[in-house]
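re: ur question from yesterday

yeah so i grabbed the chain u mentioned. its 119 aa long if i counted rite. heres the sequnce exactly as i have it in my notes:
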Amino acid sequence: MVKRYFIGFILLLSICSTATYAQSSFNGASNIPFDGVNQIEFYPNPAVEFLSVTIKNSNLNNVQLELFSILGNKLNVSAEAMGGDRYRFDVQNLDAGYYLLVVRDPVTRFRETYKFLKK
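ran it thru and got these structure tokens back, copy pasting raw so excuse formatting
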């Protein structure tokens, strides 16, 4: 049982990006050149009080942002809309450590996961 969780944890870590600026194409295919769609920026990394998220060149219709602990537990932290495609999470009450930001759109089936550090 522990081995299964450990393998899942290692797989989850390998999926996450440590970059604070990430670009992803809508179709996700690696052999198709990047077309500048759905540029996701999140900063600062490491975060102390707030984590800001900006989505540029978006074709997303129903963006959903969620935070998870590094173990995969969903956190009860809501994104505050800052206008346009800008959002902000209040992370000052979170313990120091690594967390996951999930950006998804169920309409277009877009889903990306990013790792950030909370100091």
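noticed a couple things. The chain has one domain: 2-118. also The chain is about 10% helix and 40% strand.
anyway ttyl
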